[in-house]
Design goal:
The complex is a heterodimer of chains A (about 260) and B (about 375).
Chain A: H1 2-11, H2 31-38, E1 47-49, E2 52-56, E3 60-66, E4 69-71, E5 74-77, E6 83-86, E7 90-97, H3 98-118, H4 126-142, E8 149-157, E9 160-166, E10 172-174, E11 177-179, H5 182-186, H6 188-194, H7 201-218, E12 226-232, E13 236-238, H8 251-254
Antiparallel strand pairs in A: 1-4, 1-7, 2-3, 2-11, 3-12, 4-5, 6-7, 7-8, 8-9, 9-10, 12-13
Chain B: H1 2-31, H2 37-48, H3 54-91, H4 106-117, E1 121-125, E2 129-135, E3 149-153, E4 156-162, H5 164-185, H6 191-204, E5 216-224, E6 227-233, E7 239-242, E8 244-247, H7 251-261, H8 270-285, E9 295-301, E10 304-308, H9 311-332, H10 335-359
Antiparallel strand pairs in B: 1-2, 1-8, 2-9, 3-4, 4-5, 5-6, 6-7, 9-10
Helix pairs in contact in B: 1-3, 2-3, 7-8, 9-10
Classes of the chains: A alpha+beta (about 260), B alpha+beta (about 375).
Chain lengths: ~260, ~375
């Protein structure tokens, strides 16, 4: 009897099950029930990936990301693939909450499955997937239960290259080069200066490595193990993980306080 | 002796002749049918048979009467069967969820009959364009004609035949499907997928006892990744892809015309396709003079969003082929006749165009 009366009081204006992700909390001292409802919403991320950088090049799209998953300030997981192929035409990279990224991959898997089941010569290209993701992200944000990711979606279909980004609040746009997280601040200025329309594959990789090196030096959640993914008309290839050469013997690093204000 | 036999034969001949006629009329009374042609032929054969032997004539008479009896009996049985079948048909056609013993759903078939009652709609396609045309039918001289072609999206159009109310509802459904897809994926809905949604919707109505099948046939023309397509959705929930098709009343004439020409449609130019559509419409009119007010033509293509052709454009196409037969007629006649016919032709065209403008109600887009 007690349970049912509690439940009745707890639901208030919205007379639906507790499984709903958003309920208006009612002032009735039923703290436990409300906390359960609240904990179903994403309040902060737990295991996060850092930046993803992507550019358009001559034959398609190049995307780079490292393989780290941070648990707060701990670099806990060092083998997380944050870039995945979607169907025949698209490549998705994500930064932010890893579990939400996996959820998105499940949505896209279902989407692609249904698309393939039509078996009619039509297929969803990168533009369609990008817009679908925008709708999903914006919808979740409106329910105050966002997928805590910034997504990079690139692809090639019928010779047309496409590169776009969706943030966790549903902001989406297309550009020739995109980056997430710290990449926006550290990598994009480099790309703005040095990106050209007709980069070759080698030039593109070198440019991306330059960006990733800067991120490795300056982003505390970056690790020195990265992958580069290539998307062309033929398909997607994600490289094996490898490390960048770094140089830490700058004089300023060996003796950082020499010549600093107030030092001797 | 021979003379005696001959006279005796004649008597018997006459007797059997009378007997045969008597039997015939007797049978007629019995069966209340018209004189069976086979009966009558056999009777004539007997009459004029050259075999003089009595016995053979008797046998022939017997054979004839047997055969005619058999034939009439068979005919009676057939008709009884038909009546029975009609009775059965009426037994199993009350609702759509009842099968007939021969495995048919009569309500669905009746719904397809409704499509045949509507005025004609014609569709044809090339690799890059689809043309939809229809005959404008108005309730009366005072009213405007029925809207039978609808734009579903920039790249999809539909022509309907049958219950126009059902058609309107279904085209609204198609428009909302198209818009939803555009909103989610920012790209046009492939027409092949829209047609499957439609067919599934129609199938639902053939399997619920509280619903009835849609009484409208839809010619859906649209673009896909692979080019232009034309589909026909019928009330049964089936859909077929066509190079060219016509539905509605008197559509068989148009279909015959299209069957003759369809192989060339794939590579047709846009103008040829429009001309073929209007010619097909003319076939359904069967004798009525073709005026631009009588038909509505719409076109969509790979670089061309769906739109209706205006009256002048249609009239221009009609003029290209309507003038030629007029001139031929004029040439065949005498000089006076020629002058008259030649004078009459442009006058008629001008009159037709003028009258056409007046006939068209100002409701069309």
């Amino acid at each position: 009897r007690e349970e049912t009366s509690d439940r009745e009081r707890g639901r208030g204006a919205i007379g639906v099950s507790e499984k709903m992700t958003f309920t208006i909390p009612i002032e009735n001292g039923n703290g436990v029930k409300n906390a359960e409802a609240d904990s179903q919403r994403t309040l902060y991320p737990y295991v996060t990936g850092t930046s993803v950088v992507a550019i358009k090049y001559k034959d398609g799209i190049l995307m780079a990301s490292d393989m780290g998953g941070s648990y707060g300030s701990t670099l806990r997981y060092k083998n997380i693939e944050r870039m995945k192929a979607i169907g025949k035409h698209s490549l998705l990279g994500a930064s932010g909450e890893i579990s939400d990224f996996q959820e998105i991959l499940r949505y896209l898997d279902e989407l692609m499955l249904n698309d393939n089941m039509w078996d009619d010569g039509n297929s969803l290209g990168p533009k369609e997937v990008h817009n679908y993701l925008t709708r999903v992200m914006y919808n979740r944000r409106n329910k105050f239960n966002p997928l805590w990711n910034t997504l990079v979606l690139g692809g090639v279909k019928n010779g047309e290259k496409y590169l776009g980004m969706v943030s966790m609040i549903g902001v989406s746009f297309e550009d020739n080069h995109v980056a997430t997280g710290f990449g926006n601040h550290l990598a994009r200025p480099i790309l703005r200066d040095e990106w050209r329309e007709d980069l070759s594959f080698e030039e593109g990789v070198k440019l991306l490595e330059k960006c990733m090196r800067v991120l490795l030096y300056r982003d505390r959640s970056a690790i020195n193990k990265l992958q580069i993914a290539k998307m062309t008309e033929e398909g997607v290839t994600v490289s094996e993980p490898y490390s960048l050469k770094t140089f830490w013997d700058f004089k300023a690093f060996t003796n950082p306080t020499v010549g600093a204000e107030g030092s001797w | 002796k021979k003379k005696k036999e001959r006279s005796l034969n004649r008597v018997f001949f006459f007797f059997f002749f009378l007997l045969n006629i008597f039997l015939l009329f007797f049978k007629l009374e019995e069966l209340h049918h018209e004189i069976d042609s086979t009966n009558f032929c056999m009777f004539l054969i007997f009459l004029f048979s050259s075999n003089n032997s009595l016995v053979s004539r008797l046998l022939l008479l017997l054979k004839i009467s047997q055969k005619s009896a058999l034939l009439s009996r068979r005919k009676r049985e057939e008709e009884d069967e038909e009546e029975e079948a009609k009775m059965f048909r009426n037994q199993y056609d009350t609702d759509v969820t009842t099968w007939s013993p021969t495995g048919r759903l009569f309500q669905v078939e009746y719904a397809m009959e409704a499509v045949k009652q509507g005025s004609a709609a014609i569709g044809l396609r090339s690799r890059s364009h689809v043309v939809l045309a229809c005959v404008n039918k108005a309730q009366s001289e005072l009213s405007s004609h029925q809207r039978k072609i609808f734009k579903v999206d920039d790249h999809i159009g539909v022509a309907i035949a049958g219950l126009t109310a059902d058609g309107r509802v279904l085209s609204r459904y198609m428009r909302s499907e198209s818009i939803n897809h555009s909103f989610t994926y920012e790209s046009p809905l492939p027409v092949g997928r829209l047609v499957v949604h439609l067919a599934d919707k129609a199938q639902v109505c053939t399997q619920r006892s509280w619903k009835r099948p849609y009484g409208v046939g839809l010619l859906v023309g649209g673009l896909d990744e692979s080019g232009a397509h034309l589909y026909y959705n019928c009330p049964s929930g089936n859909y077929f892809e066509y190079q060219a098709f016509a539905i509605g009343s008197r559509s068989q004439a148009a279909k015959t015309y299209l069957e003759r020409r369809f192989e060339s449609f794939g590579d047709s130019s846009r103008e040829d396709l429009i001309k073929d559509a209007i010619l097909a419409v003319r076939e359904t009119l069967q004798g009525e003079t073709l005026k631009s007010s009588l038909c509505t033509v719409s076109i969509l293509g790979v670089d061309e969003p769906f739109h209706f052709l205006d009256q002048e454009a249609i009239q221009k196409v009609i003029d290209t082929f309507e003038k030629v037969p007029e001139e031929d007629e004029g040439e065949g006649e005498a000089d006076e006749g020629e002058a008259e016919a030649a004078a009459a032709a442009p006058a008629e065209q001008g009159g037709g165009a003028g009258a056409g403008d007046q006939d068209v109600a100002p409701m069309e887009m």
